[in-house]
Design goal:
homodimer; ten-stranded mixed beta sheet; alpha/beta; 216 residues; two-stranded antiparallel sheet
Chain lengths: 216, 216
């Protein structure tokens, strides 16, 4: 059964996955980029940016695992870009340049319709205006039996968590304080019953936690 | 200089240090006791309850360190007991029986005055009605140059954090989801500048994080 999976979601000690005041200049909010240093120290993380070298230990294994068995991605509009409201034109095609690191169909949740955009390397951005369940259904169909990866941002992950649709949630706790920003976990009394958390795995300066949905 | 220290503050993955619906039956809120299993697996944690045996590794070292150099404790009324409002009588003397595991003066923050209570083994409960700064000043004086330990509950720790008075904050992340309850970190934009977090230390199924206040 095709799963919906979140990977490498990095959280500060005070519970934020992005800092405050997100903008074009600070897409992860002020200080938010400090969360992700661990990932760009790994071989897989560097390769994602077109670089070489990097560590090949536990952290790298987690990054690699995030791509295995994934046939499509769903993301929120904030992860796709900083543009708000109706699309002024079709110029913005994501943060990732002409060849995004997906290589498969990506479904972007938005309230504003837009034609699909085909990028280099197999990534095609589709814009879904009829809600998260529809986006997931379309992603599942496009993945052809493989899993669907849920990107971000925080609001999109919260939305799918609240709908009970996330099967696998890999959270990384970084020894960083952000003070304010976007949380991933909002009060949800049934969360404790719906998910179980594996024992923590020590990485290189971060801690990996994997939540999986309990069988219904 | 006498420090104000928090130790063994255990937080769920979703950021709660106590579950929802705290009561006499569930002093740590529903499910909250699941947070503390790691501590009662250690030698020091068992000894606290009058027991024997237990592990002697990283987790035990952190529990032991929580008591070293401490000459007084400050706690909120919720940590002292479930009684709310004016004290109906002087019957309630804490959760810990006739010989509490403190062995030094304990200052309980409350809005309702009450005479001090001397327990067995050196613990004396004092009730402070003029606020957290006064409680800390009295505890520092009673500690005679030693450090002051800040107990709980969550609201009391939040209060001292907001006042910038906590010097050392040992947080333990347990692979538990509570869904709802009491958070320790509320949005506080300056927290990121006031504290730094050491790299995580892997315990036995939990992760230790130590925050220290940056020099002013």
């Amino acid at each position: 059964m095709s799963q919906l999976r979140v990977h490498n979601l990095t959280m500060s000690v005070d519970g934020y996955v992005a800092g405050p005041e997100q903008s074009l200049q600070h897409p992860l909010g002020v200080g938010g980029e400090r969360l992700h240093g661990w990932m760009f120290a790994t071989r897989a993380g560097r390769a994602m940016l077109g670089g070489e070298g990097g560590t090949a230990g536990v952290d790298d294994a987690f990054v690699v695992r995030g791509d295995v068995g994934v046939g499509a991605t769903v993301m929120g509009r904030n992860m796709f870009g900083p543009v708000r409201g109706p699309w002024p034109d079709e110029e913005w095609t994501g943060w990732w340049g002409p060849r995004p690191p997906y290589g498969h169909p990506v479904f972007v949740l938005t309230r504003h319709a837009r034609p699909s955009v085909t990028m280099e390397g197999g990534t095609v951005f589709h814009f879904v205006t009829d809600g998260p369940e529809s986006a997931l259904a379309r992603a599942r169909a496009a993945a052809g039996g493989a899993d669907v990866r849920l990107g971000g941002g925080a609001a999109t992950i919260r939305q799918y968590l609240a709908l009970g649709l996330v099967d696998h949630l890999h959270v990384v706790v970084a020894p960083v304080l952000l003070g304010d920003g976007e949380r991933i976990f909002e009060p949800a009394a049934d969360l404790a019953f719906r998910y179980e958390c594996a024992p923590p795995v020590a990485g290189d300066g971060v801690t990996h936690l994997v939540l999986t949905r309990r069988p219904r």
